[in-house]
Amino acid sequence: MERRIECIVRGNMNEVKADYAKKIEAEAERIGITGMIEDRGSVYRVIAEGDEELLKRFITFLYEGVSGVHVVDVETLWYDTKMEFLNFKIKEALDEEDNEAESSY
């Protein structure tokens, strides 16, 4: 069943932030899910869509998949898929409009 997750990833990753995003992107592409990861300063925001079982594995990877990173929490919300993405990408800087719309995190 196709699903969507929206996650907030918290942890100690200051020294490897860029590396973390790249490894998350690579894993998403490897297992065939779409979405994006966004650095929001003290946390990462991840949106992913794909098969529910693949998304469960992906959440585990968010916790454990990148050496040198200590993830303390992955807050995850599940939704029906919106089929919003064609691939998985690293979203660069937030623009002001996105920041206001996404301020619930």
Describe the protein's architecture and organization:
The chain has 105 residues and is α+β, with helices and mostly antiparallel strands. It has 3 helices and 5 strands, in the order βαββαββα. A 5-stranded mixed beta sheet has the order 4-1-3-2-5, covered by helices on one side. Strand 2 and strand 3 (43-51) form a beta hairpin. Helix 1 (17-31) packs antiparallel against helix 2. The longest helix has 15 residues, at 17-31.
Strand and helix map with partners:
Layout lengths: L1 E11 L4 H15 L2 E6 L3 E9 H13 L5 E11 L7 E4 L4 H6 L4
Parallel strand pairs: 2-5
Antiparallel strand pairs: 1-3, 1-4, 2-3
Summarize the structure.
The protein is built from 3 helices and 5 strands. With 105 residues, it is an alpha+beta fold.
Largest sheet: 5 strands, mixed
> How much helix is in the residues?
25-40%
Structural Rg: 13 Å
Structural class: alpha+beta
Q: Which residues sit in consecutive blocks of at least 5 with pLDDT less than 50?
A: 99-105
Strand proportion, as a percent range, falls in 35-45%
The residue-averaged pLDDT reads 87
Order of helices and strands: EHEEHEEH
**Bulk shape:** globular
What is the terminal separation in angstroms? 27 Å
* Number of E-state strands: 5
Number of H/I helices: 3
Strand order within the widest sheet?
Answer: 4-1-3-2-5
Key features of this structure:
alpha+beta; globular
